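Minutes, project check-in

Agenda point 3 was the complex the collaborators sent over. CS summarized: two entities, 596 residues total, and the question is how they sit relative to each other. Sequences were read into the notes so everyone works from the same version.
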Amino acid sequence: MGAVTENTSANAKPNQDVFAATLLKLAEADKNIIAVTSDSRGSGKLVAFGQQLPDQIVEIGIAEQNLVGVAAGLASAGKKTFAVSPACFLTARALEQIKNDVCYSDNPVRLIGISAGVSYGALGTTHHSLHDFAVLRAINNITIVVPADNFETEQAVKLAAQSTKPVYLRFGKKPMQLLTEDASIGFEFGKGRVVKKGSDVAIIANGETVYPALLAAQKLEESGISATVVSMHTIKPLDVTLIAQLATETKAIITVEEHMINGGLGEACASYLLQNGYKKPFKIMGIPDEYTVTGSQVEILNHYGISADGIAAEAIKILSGN
Amino acid sequence: MTDKELKEKSVEYRKKILKYIVGANAGHTGGSLSCTDILNVLYNDVLNVSPDDFGSPDRDRYIQSKGHCVEALFVVLADKGFFPETDLETLCKYKSHYIGHPTKKVHGVEQNTGALGHGLPIAAGVALAAKMDKKAYRVFTMLGDGELPEGSNWEAALTASHYKLDNLCAMIDNNKLQITGTNAEVCNTDPLDAKFESFGWAVKQVDGHDIKALREAFASMPFEPGKPNLIIAHTIKGKGISFMENSVKWHHGVPNHEQYETAITELEVAMANI
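CS then shared the predicted structure for the full assembly.
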């Protein structure tokens, strides 16, 4: 693979832009695809969708519970429904509708959480979604996918469109570099993507944290440390086969996520490892259970060590036995 | 079916509702008895659903928002042949699909409900899909009056009006009681007609135990082209059983043996007087 740099190339787009472009393309060919929005077509990048396919967008207004309930009804009547709303509102305010109307009733709504994690930065905790993995992991009958780059995003949207089961896709606002040019690394729900191979430490990340994990791996190489980097885009169902393999082949595991450390990717991995007899040095990097520091997305993530330097430092620390 | 035959069905339904609630030693007795006549008319005079063709994309849909009154729904579905009535002997028993709220595991149930304030948004979504697909099927949902403070109802009321869903009909089982007391004491929602009319709905008020009035109301859909339909059905909680009527304690009270015998006797007298 080529060198990955921190400089964002002109080709890097926010994943939610790629989501919208992909959905528009799919919907042009399939009149049964319906986008449902809660005054969120701007932030969801669906303005063009609304202009070009006005009969395939349903505007609900700012009413997320109703957004999900109506989407469930549309899905039950055969519509391939994408319910699009900021992740913070979609997965908190409408959680009961997700639990009952989508998952329990098995209406295959594609729930699209946009501007997720701390994408909204200085808008503060009301606009952050640091709970969504945790709450959705605790609900039966939903696939949870957090694409890391534009490639994963496009693939995830296409797969979601074909899905006959509820799916949650989570996107952020930051332009994302491709993790790898290696076309042999495919994408399917429930299969982690090994975007860099190494033997000392495995860094399992998802969403917008995979890229800094990859940069961290490059820094570690300069220090003689070989790291595997995995985009564990699907949290549920979790690729436990890959996790077991990483636990066998490397000396330590670090997980990284733009989510509270409670109940997210890291705890999902830890649960599997502990219950299956893997006793390896293990560290969860995420947002701690505290009043979240204020600032931009990058400032917040840097504050909590979710950066190339922070992840590399954690790797050195865990390998040195500290 | 004649009005008289439907009235007889209502009495039979009420007897079975009590029978299976007693068998399960659980159930929402008062509300199931208040909505019996509405479901009777809906399934025997309005909906184009059948057990053999339940997957038809053109079928009418009924989504029970007040899911806790599932006993009434189950009794009606059994009568319509969706499953053998004897299945109801497993009501609320270990591993039974016949639980205390509707689930799609039971043939004839459209959506899993139970949490309140969910039926109307889903029904609005289905009705919107019908409009998009230019299909003629209609969508019905029954709400309890006690669930009206749930904000999602009013969100969906806006959507139904905004999208001119005149193929949608909401029925409010307006028995005026909820678990704590009267609606007026708990959270006054009156005047319901003016509220919904101001949201852009066409509203009819009927005696929810008057078979003829219910039939006429349903038959006049859409009440006004371009507006969603609301039937405010004025009902009596515990209807048909003298000691249960208008009594909060029968919200989910289960009759003992003696009360059950008395209730059945009252229903048999009612049957004889039809």
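Noted in discussion: The interface with chain B takes residues 34, 55, 58, 60-61, 63, 65-66, 68-79, 96-97, 100-101, 104-107 of chain A (CB under 8 Å).
Follow-up: revisit at the next meeting once the mutant set is ready.
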